[in-house]
Each structure stands twice: as structure tokens, then as C-alpha cells.
UniProtKB/TrEMBL annotation:
GO terms for biological process: regulation of DNA-templated transcription. A motif (PRPP-binding) lies at residues 94-106. It catalyses: UMP + diphosphate = 5-phospho-alpha-D-ribose 1-diphosphate + uracil. Pfam families: Pribosyltran. Residues 6-152 form the Phosphoribosyltransferase domain. Belongs to the purine/pyrimidine phosphoribosyltransferase family. PyrR subfamily. This is Bifunctional protein PyrR. Its EC number is 2.4.2.9. It comes from the Bacteria. Regulates the transcription of the pyrimidine nucleotide (pyr) operon in response to exogenous pyrimidines. InterPro entries: PRTase-like (IPR029057), PRTase_dom (IPR000836), PyrR (IPR023050), PyrR_bifunctional (IPR050137). PANTHER family: BIFUNCTIONAL PROTEIN PYRR.
């Protein structure tokens, strides 16, 4: 197994800044905007994007964490019906945020999770890396970088909040 560095911490920071500017350009008013980070790294990226937007616009953007565990289609569903996002997303403009987009199944699960409880006015999608190989007709509105991969390659996003370093690697298995 070998790996190659795609982004170092500086390139990662620049990419997040660019995504923030694209979000601001596409959303003239961000007063109704909520960032929904898909657990785990998507949530931390959402926090970084919210902080950067606040630095740029001096407006605080709310962030929620979306745990898709009970909505994944590759594991047995739990009978735990008490799961709920603890934020009212009714009529909000939501930007789902994840680190890597692959088949689209994670994004579908996150949308199912939100739509089970709320009717937002719209949902957009931001991803740090789009590696292709989609299995569902889902595309991101904001993409940090498109990195077409082979099926044997994997994209690994490391964030200091989880992994003690910021970088993006491509791993050949």
C-alpha cells in the first residue's frame, strides 16, 4: 500500500477558503443558511467553513452535526427512533458538508435523515474532494477538488480535530 500527498495544510486551508467564497457568491443572503456537517470529518469541515464565513462576512452561520448511522443502506437499521437533529431546520437553506464524495450513498443517507424530520427550503452539497464512481444521481454544488480515482484508490482526509494533522492523501491499495 502506498500513499501520495494531494493537499498539505496550506492547500487544504486555501481550498476551504475558496469553498466559502463560492458559497457566499451563490447565497446572496446567508441569514437563513445552516451548515450540516456529516459526522465525523464533514462536521469539522462545516465548523471551519462557518468560522471562515464569519471572518469574511462578520455573520455567524449555525452548524449542525448529521449522524447518518441509522440511515446507511449497508447496515441493518436500528429500532432507535429517538434520533433527531437538535436544531429546527424547517424552511432553512442547508448546505450538507462532507470530506469525500464517492458513490453518493452517504449524501442520500444524510438527506433522508434531514427530510425525516424537517422540510428545508433547499439543500445544497459541498465536498472537499469528489473522487467519482457515483452510484446515485447526486452531484455537489461546491467541490474543493475533483480527483478522479481508480476503484482501487482511496482518498483519506486528515483533519487536526480528528487526526492531529491537516492533509489529504490518495492511497493505492
Amino acid at each position: 500500500m502506498s500513499s501520495k500527498l494531494l493537499f498539505d495544510n496550506i492547500a487544504l486551508s486555501r481550498t476551504i477558503t475558496r469553498i466559502c467564497h463560492e458559497i457566499l457568491e451563490k447565497n446572496k443572503s446567508i441569514n437563513n443558511l445552516v451548515l450540516a456537517g456529516i459526522k465525523t470529518r464533514g462536521y469539522f469541515l462545516a465548523l471551519r467553513i462557518a468560522k471562515k464565513i464569519e471572518e469574511i462576512e462578520e455573520i455567524k452561520v449555525d452548524v449542525v452535526e448529521v449522524d447518518i448511522t441509522n440511515y446507511r443502506d449497508d447496515i441493518q437499521k436500528s429500532n432507535n427512533s429517538s434520533f433527531k437533529i437538535n436544531y429546527n431546520l424547517e424552511n432553512k437553506d442547508i448546505i450538507l458538508i462532507d470530506d469525500v464524495m464517492y458513490t453518493g450513498r452517504t449524501v442520500r443517507a444524510a438527506m433522508d435523515c434531514i427530510l425525516d424530520f424537517y422540510r428545508p427550503s433547499r439543500i445544497m452539497l459541498a465536498v472537499l474532494v469528489d473522487r467519482g464512481h457515483r452510484e446515485l444521481p447526486i452531484r455537489a454544488d461546491f467541490v474543493g477538488k475533483n480527483i478522479p480515482t481508480s476503484i482501487n484508490e482511496k482518498i483519506k482526509v486528515n483533519l487536526t480535530e480528528v487526526d492531529d494533522e491537516d492533509c489529504v492523501l490518495i492511497i493505492n491499495s
